[in-house]
Amino acid sequence: MDRKTLAVFFALVLWLGMVVPTYAGSHKKSYLLRFAHGLPTTHDVAENFQFFKSLVETSSDHRLKVRLFPSGQLVNDKGLLQAVRTGAVDAGAVYAFYVEPIVPAFGLFTTPLVYDGTEQTIDAIEGRVGDLFFEALRKKGYVPLGWVVWPLETTGIESNAPVHVPLDLKGKVIRPLSPETVLYLQTYGQAQAAFVSGAELYTAIQRGTIDGSISSFDHAVTRKLSEVSPYFCVLPGVNVAHDIIFINRRVYRRLPPDLQQVLVEAARQTQRHSYAVGRKVVADMTIQANRVLKEVYYPTADDLALWHADLDRFFKAALKDNPEALALVMSERERMGKSK
């Protein structure tokens, strides 16, 4: 080996000695994600976020840590979307109905009774609708990772008096979860609507400020709403409260590619896990709701005909200023064979 070749060889060895440890150090660097959501830790659906945390940490050999902030500790549900976008919070889970103001297509999920079963919404988010939603969120500067699905079969209207048909709501003040639900309550039940935060809901019903809420068995049981509104009319699809797991774009891009993939895969598995959790919630919460509520009412076929009367006309009225969502609603109704 001549002197020039030897010099090149030693230079290469020196370079590798500098670069490889640097790469290894970067590869072993640990990261912390502050993950916020609005549910109490006792809530069945919140178990999905613990599952996500455990999966991320295990799959990354604990290089990526997730610290959960439940119950709106860092920011309330309504402000979470903006907090993640600005980086005030690294990641979180937000209800789909809070996304509609920035992505109008989400009106598909904020409009009551488009769907009446969980599997219908799963087909939607795993297909064209889910792709459309996530692409729209990316264009707004977010990195959506996956869904956490709530069962529709345990949703309905919880009230301080029995509700069986729409006009049983006449004169009552009900907490909605979207402008489209406000119109539904007014049109079908001649009811009034008042937006109240989840934290204030129990007290608002207790004091008579409102008479009830669009709710679920989970809320009746875990938030103890059954104590102040002990009557529940089951109306699957009156609310679609699926969560989206998402992360700040800058935070995501700073992660090494392998950790980005860990997040994507963990969210995908958490989404599938939420389907199983949802089925368990339906079984468990149905039993518990019947124990704590004075009445759990399942509308008869004649009752449902009143709740579902002329829905296509209602959708057109509710979404007249949101053509993107209306087109999706009508497309989904046609896909499910419900459009008339």
TrEMBL record:
Lineage of source species: Bacteria, Pseudomonadati, Thermodesulfobacteriota, Desulfobacteria, Desulfobacterales
Domain of life: Bacteria
Gene Ontology biological process terms, A to Z: transmembrane transport
Name assigned to this protein: C4-dicarboxylate ABC transporter substrate-binding protein
Presence of the UniProt keyword Cell wall biogenesis/degradation in the record: no
PANTHER family: PTHR33376, SIALIC ACID-BINDING PERIPLASMIC PROTEIN SIAP (PTHR33376:SF4)
Keywords carried by this UniProt record: Signal
Gene3D superfamilies recorded: Bacterial extracellular solute-binding protein, family 7
Organism of origin: Desulfosarcina ovata subsp. sediminis
InterPro entries reported in the protein's UniProt record: DctP_fam, TRAP_DctP_sf
